[in-house]
Amino acid sequence: MQADYLITHATVVTMDAKRRVINDGAVAVKGDSIAAVGPADEVAARFAGAGRIIDARGKAVFPGLINTHNHLFQTLLKGLGDDRVLRDWLASMTFPSAVYLKPDDTYNAAMLGCLDGFHSGTTTMVDYMYAHNGPGLSDGIIAAFRELGIRAILGRGTMNTAARYGVPAGIQQDVATFVADFRRLVAAYHGADNGRLRVWLAPAAVWSNNREMFLAIKGLLQEYDTGLMVHVSETPFDREATVTEHGANDIETLRNLGLLGPRTLMVHCVYLTPREIRLARDYDARVSHNPVSNMYLSSGVAPVPLMLASGMKVGLATDGAASNNANNMLETLKFAALLHKVHDLDPTVITAEKILEMATIDGARALGLEQEIGSLEAGKKADLFVFDPQRSATATPMHHPVSTLVYSADSRCVEMVMVDGRVVMEDGRVTTVNEREQLAAAATAAQRLAERAGTIRLASTRPWRSVAY
Protein backbone atom coordinates (compact mmCIF):
# COMPACT_ATOMS: atom_id res chain seq x y z
CA MET A 1 0.00 0.00 0.00
CA GLN A 2 1.04 3.57 -0.62
CA ALA A 3 1.42 6.31 1.95
CA ASP A 4 2.84 9.80 1.79
CA TYR A 5 4.67 9.56 5.12
CA LEU A 6 5.80 6.73 7.34
CA ILE A 7 7.05 7.82 10.77
CA THR A 8 8.64 4.72 12.21
CA HIS A 9 10.55 3.31 15.20
CA ALA A 10 9.06 5.96 17.50
CA THR A 11 7.30 5.73 20.83
CA VAL A 12 3.75 6.39 19.65
CA VAL A 13 1.36 7.82 22.24
CA THR A 14 -1.94 7.09 20.53
CA MET A 15 -4.56 8.51 22.97
CA ASP A 16 -6.93 5.92 21.49
CA ALA A 17 -9.66 4.25 23.56
CA LYS A 18 -7.12 1.82 25.04
CA ARG A 19 -4.55 4.61 25.55
CA ARG A 20 -1.91 2.51 23.84
CA VAL A 21 1.70 3.61 24.06
CA ILE A 22 3.59 1.67 21.38
CA ASN A 23 7.28 1.59 22.22
CA ASP A 24 8.53 0.69 18.74
CA GLY A 25 5.67 2.06 16.75
CA ALA A 26 4.85 3.71 13.47
CA VAL A 27 2.30 6.09 11.97
CA ALA A 28 1.47 6.02 8.26
CA VAL A 29 -0.09 9.11 6.69
CA LYS A 30 -1.90 9.23 3.37
CA GLY A 31 -3.36 12.50 2.15
CA ASP A 32 -4.88 14.38 5.06
CA SER A 33 -5.47 11.31 7.22
CA ILE A 34 -3.78 8.65 9.28
CA ALA A 35 -3.66 5.39 7.32
CA ALA A 36 -2.32 3.15 10.07
CA VAL A 37 -0.92 3.13 13.60
CA GLY A 38 0.78 0.15 15.16
CA PRO A 39 4.01 -1.74 15.77
CA ALA A 40 6.77 -0.51 13.45
CA ASP A 41 7.36 -3.83 11.71
CA GLU A 42 3.67 -4.36 10.97
CA VAL A 43 3.03 -0.86 9.63
CA ALA A 44 6.29 -0.81 7.65
CA ALA A 45 5.36 -4.10 5.97
CA ARG A 46 2.13 -2.53 4.72
CA PHE A 47 3.60 0.82 3.70
CA ALA A 48 7.16 0.03 2.64
CA GLY A 49 6.74 2.22 -0.44
CA ALA A 50 5.88 5.39 1.47
CA GLY A 51 6.81 8.60 -0.26
CA ARG A 52 8.91 9.62 2.74
CA ILE A 53 10.13 7.46 5.60
CA ILE A 54 11.09 9.24 8.82
CA ASP A 55 13.19 7.27 11.29
CA ALA A 56 12.13 8.53 14.73
CA ARG A 57 14.25 6.34 17.01
CA GLY A 58 14.50 7.80 20.50
CA LYS A 59 11.60 10.15 19.76
CA ALA A 60 7.89 10.20 20.55
CA VAL A 61 4.88 10.93 18.37
CA PHE A 62 1.85 12.58 19.96
CA PRO A 63 -1.50 13.77 18.66
CA GLY A 64 -1.42 17.51 18.02
CA LEU A 65 -2.33 19.59 21.08
CA ILE A 66 -5.66 21.43 21.02
CA ASN A 67 -5.71 24.96 22.44
CA THR A 68 -9.40 25.41 23.24
CA HIS A 69 -9.29 29.14 24.06
CA ASN A 70 -7.25 32.12 22.95
CA HIS A 71 -7.47 35.82 22.14
CA LEU A 72 -4.81 36.07 19.48
CA PHE A 73 -4.91 39.85 19.18
CA GLN A 74 -3.48 39.93 22.70
CA THR A 75 -0.12 38.58 21.55
CA LEU A 76 0.70 42.23 20.72
CA LEU A 77 -0.03 43.27 24.32
CA LYS A 78 2.42 41.06 26.25
CA GLY A 79 3.90 42.75 29.29
CA LEU A 80 1.55 45.76 29.35
CA GLY A 81 -0.98 44.42 31.85
CA ASP A 82 1.13 42.70 34.48
CA ASP A 83 0.13 42.45 38.14
CA ARG A 84 -3.54 43.41 37.78
CA VAL A 85 -6.81 41.68 38.51
CA LEU A 86 -9.09 40.98 35.55
CA ARG A 87 -11.32 44.06 35.79
CA ASP A 88 -8.37 46.46 36.08
CA TRP A 89 -6.44 44.56 33.40
CA LEU A 90 -9.36 44.99 31.00
CA ALA A 91 -10.08 48.63 31.82
CA SER A 92 -6.51 49.94 31.90
CA MET A 93 -4.90 48.07 29.01
CA THR A 94 -6.85 45.47 27.05
CA PHE A 95 -10.00 47.40 26.13
CA PRO A 96 -8.13 50.66 25.34
CA SER A 97 -5.79 48.69 23.06
CA ALA A 98 -8.66 46.93 21.30
CA VAL A 99 -10.20 50.24 20.26
CA TYR A 100 -7.20 50.86 18.00
CA LEU A 101 -6.89 47.46 16.37
CA LYS A 102 -6.58 47.23 12.59
CA PRO A 103 -6.80 44.15 10.34
CA ASP A 104 -3.02 44.19 9.91
CA ASP A 105 -2.69 44.01 13.70
CA THR A 106 -4.93 40.98 14.04
CA TYR A 107 -3.10 39.29 11.16
CA ASN A 108 0.32 39.86 12.73
CA ALA A 109 -0.94 38.91 16.18
CA ALA A 110 -2.44 35.66 14.91
CA MET A 111 0.77 34.83 13.09
CA LEU A 112 2.77 35.37 16.27
CA GLY A 113 0.43 33.38 18.49
CA CYS A 114 0.13 30.44 16.10
CA LEU A 115 3.90 30.29 15.57
CA ASP A 116 4.26 29.99 19.34
CA GLY A 117 1.60 27.31 19.17
CA PHE A 118 3.38 25.29 16.49
CA HIS A 119 6.58 25.28 18.53
CA SER A 120 4.66 23.80 21.46
CA GLY A 121 2.94 21.09 19.42
CA THR A 122 -0.38 22.88 18.89
CA THR A 123 -2.23 21.86 15.75
CA THR A 124 -5.71 23.23 16.57
CA MET A 125 -6.21 26.84 17.69
CA VAL A 126 -9.48 28.28 18.97
CA ASP A 127 -9.52 32.06 18.79
CA TYR A 128 -12.10 34.19 20.58
CA MET A 129 -12.21 37.56 18.82
CA TYR A 130 -14.52 39.60 21.03
CA ALA A 131 -13.34 43.17 20.32
CA HIS A 132 -14.51 44.84 17.10
CA ASN A 133 -14.01 48.52 16.29
CA GLY A 134 -14.61 48.09 12.58
CA PRO A 135 -14.70 45.59 9.73
CA GLY A 136 -12.01 43.11 8.77
CA LEU A 137 -10.50 42.23 12.14
CA SER A 138 -11.63 38.61 11.96
CA ASP A 139 -10.44 38.39 8.36
CA GLY A 140 -6.91 39.31 9.42
CA ILE A 141 -6.86 36.40 11.86
CA ILE A 142 -8.27 33.96 9.33
CA ALA A 143 -5.73 35.06 6.72
CA ALA A 144 -2.96 34.07 9.14
CA PHE A 145 -4.63 30.73 9.84
CA ARG A 146 -4.77 29.96 6.13
CA GLU A 147 -1.17 30.90 5.41
CA LEU A 148 0.13 28.89 8.36
CA GLY A 149 -2.01 25.83 7.60
CA ILE A 150 -3.23 25.42 11.17
CA ARG A 151 -6.59 23.88 12.09
CA ALA A 152 -8.61 26.65 13.66
CA ILE A 153 -11.90 27.93 14.97
CA LEU A 154 -12.62 31.66 14.84
CA GLY A 155 -15.12 32.77 17.45
CA ARG A 156 -16.84 35.92 16.22
CA GLY A 157 -17.40 37.85 19.43
CA THR A 158 -19.73 40.64 20.43
CA MET A 159 -20.59 42.99 23.31
CA ASN A 160 -23.58 45.31 23.49
CA THR A 161 -24.38 46.01 27.15
CA ALA A 162 -20.95 46.55 28.64
CA ALA A 163 -20.73 50.35 28.83
CA ARG A 164 -21.82 50.38 32.47
CA TYR A 165 -18.81 48.16 33.22
CA GLY A 166 -16.27 50.41 31.50
CA VAL A 167 -16.14 48.80 28.05
CA PRO A 168 -15.46 51.50 25.42
CA ALA A 169 -18.29 52.20 23.00
CA GLY A 170 -15.82 51.76 20.14
CA ILE A 171 -15.65 47.99 20.56
CA GLN A 172 -19.35 47.39 21.15
CA GLN A 173 -21.73 46.48 18.33
CA ASP A 174 -25.47 46.33 17.83
CA VAL A 175 -27.30 43.12 17.08
CA ALA A 176 -27.77 43.77 13.37
CA THR A 177 -24.09 44.54 12.79
CA PHE A 178 -23.00 41.41 14.61
CA VAL A 179 -25.48 39.13 12.84
CA ALA A 180 -24.57 40.48 9.40
CA ASP A 181 -20.85 40.01 9.97
CA PHE A 182 -21.29 36.52 11.39
CA ARG A 183 -23.28 35.48 8.33
CA ARG A 184 -20.59 36.94 6.09
CA LEU A 185 -17.80 35.08 7.89
CA VAL A 186 -19.68 31.78 7.77
CA ALA A 187 -20.33 32.17 4.05
CA ALA A 188 -16.71 33.04 3.34
CA TYR A 189 -14.78 30.70 5.64
CA HIS A 190 -16.81 28.09 7.54
CA GLY A 191 -15.59 24.68 6.36
CA ALA A 192 -12.89 26.16 4.13
CA ASP A 193 -9.45 24.66 3.51
CA ASN A 194 -10.51 21.03 3.61
CA GLY A 195 -12.65 21.71 6.67
CA ARG A 196 -9.76 23.05 8.77
CA LEU A 197 -11.50 26.39 9.35
CA ARG A 198 -14.69 26.89 11.33
CA VAL A 199 -16.57 29.96 12.51
CA TRP A 200 -18.33 29.94 15.88
CA LEU A 201 -20.45 32.38 17.88
CA ALA A 202 -18.62 34.05 20.75
CA PRO A 203 -20.50 36.51 22.98
CA ALA A 204 -17.73 38.03 25.10
CA ALA A 205 -19.42 37.24 28.41
CA VAL A 206 -22.88 36.58 29.74
CA TRP A 207 -22.95 40.01 31.41
CA SER A 208 -21.70 41.90 28.36
CA ASN A 209 -24.66 41.04 26.11
CA ASN A 210 -28.38 41.58 26.59
CA ARG A 211 -31.27 39.22 26.03
CA GLU A 212 -31.86 40.52 22.51
CA MET A 213 -28.30 39.68 21.50
CA PHE A 214 -28.46 36.22 23.04
CA LEU A 215 -31.74 35.43 21.30
CA ALA A 216 -30.15 36.45 17.99
CA ILE A 217 -27.20 34.15 18.83
CA LYS A 218 -29.62 31.33 19.63
CA GLY A 219 -31.25 31.77 16.24
CA LEU A 220 -27.89 31.64 14.46
CA LEU A 221 -26.85 28.57 16.45
CA GLN A 222 -30.02 26.80 15.34
CA GLU A 223 -29.57 27.93 11.73
CA TYR A 224 -25.94 26.97 11.26
CA ASP A 225 -23.87 23.88 12.05
CA THR A 226 -21.60 25.72 14.43
CA GLY A 227 -20.76 26.20 18.11
CA LEU A 228 -20.91 28.76 20.89
CA MET A 229 -18.12 29.87 23.20
CA VAL A 230 -18.66 32.18 26.17
CA HIS A 231 -16.73 33.29 29.26
CA VAL A 232 -18.46 31.94 32.36
CA SER A 233 -17.85 32.76 36.04
CA GLU A 234 -14.21 33.74 35.60
CA THR A 235 -14.29 36.02 38.66
CA PRO A 236 -16.81 37.08 41.31
CA PHE A 237 -17.31 40.26 39.25
CA ASP A 238 -18.54 38.20 36.30
CA ARG A 239 -21.13 36.49 38.46
CA GLU A 240 -22.32 39.73 40.05
CA ALA A 241 -22.55 41.54 36.73
CA THR A 242 -24.47 38.66 35.15
CA VAL A 243 -27.04 38.74 37.95
CA THR A 244 -27.34 42.51 37.48
CA GLU A 245 -27.87 42.13 33.74
CA HIS A 246 -29.96 38.96 33.58
CA GLY A 247 -31.31 38.32 37.08
CA ALA A 248 -29.57 34.94 37.44
CA ASN A 249 -26.08 33.45 37.46
CA ASP A 250 -24.23 32.47 34.30
CA ILE A 251 -25.31 28.83 34.13
CA GLU A 252 -28.95 29.55 34.91
CA THR A 253 -29.01 32.42 32.41
CA LEU A 254 -27.63 30.21 29.64
CA ARG A 255 -30.16 27.52 30.52
CA ASN A 256 -33.02 30.01 30.59
CA LEU A 257 -31.98 31.29 27.16
CA GLY A 258 -31.78 27.78 25.73
CA LEU A 259 -28.02 28.10 25.21
CA LEU A 260 -26.71 25.50 27.66
CA GLY A 261 -25.86 22.35 25.76
CA PRO A 262 -23.31 20.20 23.94
CA ARG A 263 -22.47 22.93 21.44
CA THR A 264 -21.60 25.37 24.23
CA LEU A 265 -17.96 25.77 25.29
CA MET A 266 -17.80 27.56 28.64
CA VAL A 267 -14.48 29.26 29.28
CA HIS A 268 -12.84 29.48 32.73
CA CYS A 269 -15.71 28.43 35.07
CA VAL A 270 -13.55 29.28 38.08
CA TYR A 271 -16.45 29.99 40.43
CA LEU A 272 -18.96 27.34 39.45
CA THR A 273 -20.67 25.78 42.45
CA PRO A 274 -21.18 22.02 42.76
CA ARG A 275 -24.84 22.53 41.84
CA GLU A 276 -23.91 24.52 38.73
CA ILE A 277 -21.42 21.85 37.70
CA ARG A 278 -24.14 19.21 37.95
CA LEU A 279 -26.51 21.37 35.93
CA ALA A 280 -23.91 22.04 33.23
CA ARG A 281 -23.06 18.34 33.11
CA ASP A 282 -26.70 17.37 32.77
CA TYR A 283 -26.94 19.64 29.71
CA ASP A 284 -23.59 18.30 28.41
CA ALA A 285 -22.00 21.75 28.22
CA ARG A 286 -18.22 21.71 27.68
CA VAL A 287 -15.41 23.57 29.51
CA SER A 288 -12.12 25.19 28.52
CA HIS A 289 -9.68 25.34 31.46
CA ASN A 290 -7.09 28.16 31.39
CA PRO A 291 -4.84 27.63 34.42
CA VAL A 292 -2.03 30.03 33.57
CA SER A 293 -4.36 32.95 32.92
CA ASN A 294 -6.31 32.21 36.08
CA MET A 295 -3.05 32.37 38.05
CA TYR A 296 -1.70 35.41 36.19
CA LEU A 297 -4.81 37.48 36.96
CA SER A 298 -5.23 35.91 40.42
CA SER A 299 -8.74 34.93 39.38
CA GLY A 300 -8.78 31.70 41.35
CA VAL A 301 -8.56 27.95 40.82
CA ALA A 302 -11.28 26.33 38.74
CA PRO A 303 -12.81 23.21 40.34
CA VAL A 304 -11.57 21.03 37.49
CA PRO A 305 -11.16 17.80 39.52
CA LEU A 306 -14.83 18.10 40.52
CA MET A 307 -15.83 18.76 36.90
CA LEU A 308 -13.90 15.70 35.75
CA ALA A 309 -15.37 13.55 38.50
CA SER A 310 -18.85 14.65 37.42
CA GLY A 311 -18.16 13.49 33.86
CA MET A 312 -17.84 16.89 32.19
CA LYS A 313 -15.73 17.26 29.05
CA VAL A 314 -12.86 19.62 29.86
CA GLY A 315 -10.15 20.85 27.49
CA LEU A 316 -7.04 22.93 28.13
CA ALA A 317 -6.03 26.34 26.83
CA THR A 318 -3.51 29.14 27.15
CA ASP A 319 -5.97 32.06 27.02
CA GLY A 320 -4.75 35.26 25.38
CA ALA A 321 -1.06 36.06 25.59
CA ALA A 322 -1.71 39.30 27.49
CA SER A 323 -2.66 37.20 30.50
CA ASN A 324 -0.24 34.32 30.18
CA ASN A 325 2.15 35.75 28.55
CA ALA A 326 2.63 33.10 25.87
CA ASN A 327 0.75 30.72 23.61
CA ASN A 328 2.88 27.79 24.75
CA MET A 329 0.71 24.74 25.38
CA LEU A 330 3.61 22.79 26.87
CA GLU A 331 3.75 25.30 29.70
CA THR A 332 0.00 24.92 30.13
CA LEU A 333 0.34 21.15 30.58
CA LYS A 334 2.73 21.52 33.50
CA PHE A 335 0.95 24.43 35.16
CA ALA A 336 -2.41 22.66 34.94
CA ALA A 337 -1.04 19.59 36.67
CA LEU A 338 0.83 21.42 39.40
CA LEU A 339 -1.87 24.00 40.15
CA HIS A 340 -4.42 21.39 41.16
CA LYS A 341 -1.95 19.27 43.08
CA VAL A 342 -0.92 22.16 45.33
CA HIS A 343 -4.44 23.57 45.59
CA ASP A 344 -5.88 20.24 46.77
CA LEU A 345 -2.69 19.21 48.61
CA ASP A 346 -2.97 15.93 46.76
CA PRO A 347 -0.42 14.83 44.13
CA THR A 348 -2.90 12.31 42.76
CA VAL A 349 -5.82 14.70 42.23
CA ILE A 350 -4.82 15.06 38.59
CA THR A 351 -2.23 12.99 36.73
CA ALA A 352 0.08 13.59 33.80
CA GLU A 353 -2.00 11.16 31.77
CA LYS A 354 -5.21 13.09 32.49
CA ILE A 355 -3.55 16.38 31.57
CA LEU A 356 -2.52 14.95 28.20
CA GLU A 357 -6.07 13.68 27.66
CA MET A 358 -7.37 17.19 28.34
CA ALA A 359 -4.95 18.63 25.78
CA THR A 360 -5.82 16.07 23.10
CA ILE A 361 -8.85 13.79 23.01
CA ASP A 362 -10.79 15.64 25.73
CA GLY A 363 -10.05 18.93 24.00
CA ALA A 364 -11.44 17.43 20.81
CA ARG A 365 -14.55 16.35 22.70
CA ALA A 366 -14.95 19.83 24.13
CA LEU A 367 -15.10 21.12 20.55
CA GLY A 368 -17.26 18.27 19.25
CA LEU A 369 -14.41 17.14 16.98
CA GLU A 370 -13.44 13.83 18.57
CA GLN A 371 -14.28 11.92 15.40
CA GLU A 372 -11.67 13.92 13.48
CA ILE A 373 -8.81 14.81 15.83
CA GLY A 374 -7.44 14.24 19.34
CA SER A 375 -5.87 10.80 18.90
CA LEU A 376 -3.65 8.85 16.53
CA GLU A 377 -6.03 6.38 14.90
CA ALA A 378 -6.57 5.20 11.35
CA GLY A 379 -9.11 7.38 9.61
CA LYS A 380 -8.58 10.45 11.74
CA LYS A 381 -6.93 13.60 10.49
CA ALA A 382 -3.13 13.52 10.44
CA ASP A 383 -2.57 16.18 13.11
CA LEU A 384 0.51 15.23 15.12
CA PHE A 385 3.95 16.24 16.32
CA VAL A 386 7.29 14.50 16.73
CA PHE A 387 9.03 15.13 20.05
CA ASP A 388 12.79 14.64 20.38
CA PRO A 389 13.82 14.81 24.06
CA GLN A 390 17.50 15.03 23.22
CA ARG A 391 17.09 18.49 21.69
CA SER A 392 17.10 19.80 25.28
CA ALA A 393 18.74 18.86 28.58
CA THR A 394 15.41 19.65 30.25
CA ALA A 395 13.66 16.72 28.57
CA THR A 396 16.51 14.23 28.82
CA PRO A 397 16.22 11.39 29.82
CA MET A 398 12.76 10.37 28.62
CA HIS A 399 11.83 7.45 30.86
CA HIS A 400 8.16 7.82 29.99
CA PRO A 401 6.90 10.03 27.15
CA VAL A 402 3.80 11.33 28.93
CA SER A 403 5.70 12.29 32.07
CA THR A 404 8.39 13.98 29.99
CA LEU A 405 5.89 15.93 27.90
CA VAL A 406 3.88 17.17 30.88
CA TYR A 407 6.62 17.84 33.42
CA SER A 408 9.91 18.22 31.51
CA ALA A 409 9.08 19.44 28.03
CA ASP A 410 10.94 22.18 26.22
CA SER A 411 9.53 23.71 23.02
CA ARG A 412 12.90 23.04 21.38
CA CYS A 413 12.00 19.35 21.54
CA VAL A 414 9.05 19.78 19.18
CA GLU A 415 10.89 18.74 16.05
CA MET A 416 8.13 18.27 13.49
CA VAL A 417 4.47 19.30 13.33
CA MET A 418 1.92 17.99 10.85
CA VAL A 419 -1.59 19.36 10.27
CA ASP A 420 -4.04 17.68 7.90
CA GLY A 421 -1.21 15.53 6.57
CA ARG A 422 0.96 18.54 5.72
CA VAL A 423 4.29 19.21 7.42
CA VAL A 424 4.04 22.75 8.78
CA MET A 425 7.19 22.60 10.92
CA GLU A 426 10.33 20.51 10.41
CA ASP A 427 13.59 20.39 12.32
CA GLY A 428 12.13 23.01 14.62
CA ARG A 429 11.47 25.48 11.79
CA VAL A 430 8.07 26.51 10.46
CA THR A 431 7.85 25.67 6.77
CA THR A 432 4.73 27.54 5.68
CA VAL A 433 5.86 31.13 6.37
CA ASN A 434 9.12 32.99 6.94
CA GLU A 435 9.18 32.97 10.71
CA ARG A 436 11.88 35.61 11.17
CA GLU A 437 10.00 38.05 8.98
CA GLN A 438 6.73 37.36 10.78
CA LEU A 439 8.27 37.90 14.22
CA ALA A 440 9.75 41.21 13.12
CA ALA A 441 6.43 42.33 11.66
CA ALA A 442 4.61 41.41 14.86
CA ALA A 443 7.09 43.34 17.00
CA THR A 444 6.62 46.42 14.83
CA ALA A 445 2.83 46.07 14.91
CA ALA A 446 2.87 45.74 18.70
CA GLN A 447 4.93 48.91 19.11
CA ARG A 448 2.69 50.92 16.80
CA LEU A 449 -0.49 49.69 18.46
CA ALA A 450 0.82 50.60 21.92
CA GLU A 451 1.71 54.07 20.64
CA ARG A 452 -1.72 54.62 19.04
CA ALA A 453 -3.55 53.38 22.12
CA GLY A 454 -1.33 55.24 24.57
CA THR A 455 -0.64 52.01 26.44
CA ILE A 456 3.09 52.32 25.74
CA ARG A 457 3.22 54.39 28.92
CA LEU A 458 2.47 51.23 30.90
CA ALA A 459 5.92 50.00 29.88
CA SER A 460 7.90 53.23 29.47
CA THR A 461 6.86 54.65 32.86
CA ARG A 462 6.62 51.37 34.72
CA PRO A 463 8.14 51.74 38.18
CA TRP A 464 10.24 49.12 39.85
CA ARG A 465 7.70 47.39 42.08
CA SER A 466 9.00 45.20 44.86
CA VAL A 467 6.79 43.28 47.25
CA ALA A 468 5.34 45.56 49.91
CA TYR A 469 5.38 44.17 53.42
Task: List the uncertain runs.
Answer: none
Output the radius of gyration. Answer: 21 Å
Mean pLDDT figure: 96
Q: How many runs of DSSP E, i.e. beta strands?
A: 17
Percent helix = 25-40%
Largest sheet: 9 strands, mixed
- Which percent range describes the beta-strand content? 15-25%
Q: Roughly how many Å apart are the termini?
A: 70 Å
Description:
This protein is an alpha/beta fold and 469 residues long. Helices cover 39% and strands 21% of the residues. It has 18 helices and 17 strands. The protein has helices at 40-46, 86-98, 103-119, 137-148, 175-189, 192-195, 211-223, 236-246, 250-256, 274-282, 291-296, 304-310, 329-344, 352-359, 361-366, 401-408, 435-453, 457-460, and strands spanning 5-13, 21-30, 33-39, 52-55, 60-63, 65-70, 122-129, 151-158, 197-203, 228-232, 264-268, 286-289, 314-316, 384-387, 414-419, 422-426, 429-430. α10 (274-282) links the parallel β11 (264-268) and β12. α3 packs parallel to α4 (137-148) and α13 crosses α16. The longest helix has 19 residues, at 435-453. The radius of gyration is 21 Å and the shape is globular. The model has no long low-confidence stretch (mean pLDDT 96).
